[in-house]
Hints:
Bound molecules: uridine-diphosphate-2(N-acetylglucosaminyl) butyric acid
Structural class: alpha+beta
Oligomer: single chain
Amino acid sequence: MQIEENIPLAPLTTFKVGGNARYLVEARAADDVLATVEYARSNQLPLFVLGGGSNLVVSDTGWPGMVLKIGIRGVEERSDGVFEVGAGEDWDSFVALTVNRNCAGVETLSGIPGTVGGTPVQNVGAYGQEVSETITSVHVLDTATRQFKDLSNAECGFAYRTSIFNSTERGRYIVLRVTYALRPGGAAKIAYADLKKYFPEGTQPTLQQVRDAVREIRLSKAMLIVPNDDDCRSAGSFFKNPIVDTSIYEDVAAHANGSVPPKYPASDGKVKLSAAWLVEQSGFAKGYTRGAVGISRRHSLAIVNRGGAAAADIIALKEEVQKGVHEKFGIELSPEPVFIGFE
Ligand code: EPU
């Protein structure tokens, strides 16, 4: 186990902002994770677990303690369509592999940056699928007891962009391996509006065609990471889509100057509003610029680093957007990324 000192974190994130990690360890095996947790504890170092850095804002002062980068690799097909995957594997490479093996279940989650270990944490979802539909168990280190443990799907407490890992048990478990049960030979899921529009009605595209379509749609929204495209130097969607009572929806509609706010069904009779729409209707058009940061030119939900931005610039724009949306619609937008080093 090699401990490095004063390591810049910006290059390890998709946003490319933030200061240094005081210490950084890359763990390639579960035992390295345990050893690092013990080391941080005995040296009283705050611990942050880093995956792909795709949903993360690091403060300009960096992280004063230990950053544990999860480098656990390996993809094993345990039985037909059941894959056990190391948390440090690149997510999109895993999706490509499942599509190659003709296993359905994660094909619409193509082109999402980050690692496998991050997917249960925020219950990654896009274009009609969520990982909660295919995850059967998550192998973790419980830092409270320092024991390894398997959590079932139910124990993960999945909901929209949420699990126990980022809510009730935040900071307790470190994800080491994730098991997904996919459907060998299963049909691709065409449920989301963008995909329905893409494929003519009545056709049944292959998993590979759906994967290609999702990547193309993501590219058009700058939600696919490609070199030298500053509209994708971001953390993807910056705000969650608010889930509200129908009376609040009516309220939003009343302030929409005649346009009809998009809505999606949510549980308990509530509706999910579109954060992208709220942002745009509150005066933050695509391409809005504020110094070195701005709103993506291709999707109003992404705050982007146009080059040389500080974390403080991102926070200032975040607050400006939250204030604007609150003033116009009375809605509080919650950010989706994880923020570290700001206390
Ligand atoms: N819209 C705008 N302006 C825009 C873009 C969208 O007004 O610039 C409105 C449109 O009315 C559109 C609606 O917002 O119909 C929804 O837009 P989109 O289909 O792009 O989806 P989204 O709600 O913005 C969500 C997820 C994405 C996921 C896509 C596709 C959240 C916060 N975002 O975005 O997930 O890829 O759906 O399924 O749930 C992520 O969470 O990081 C993420 C990328």
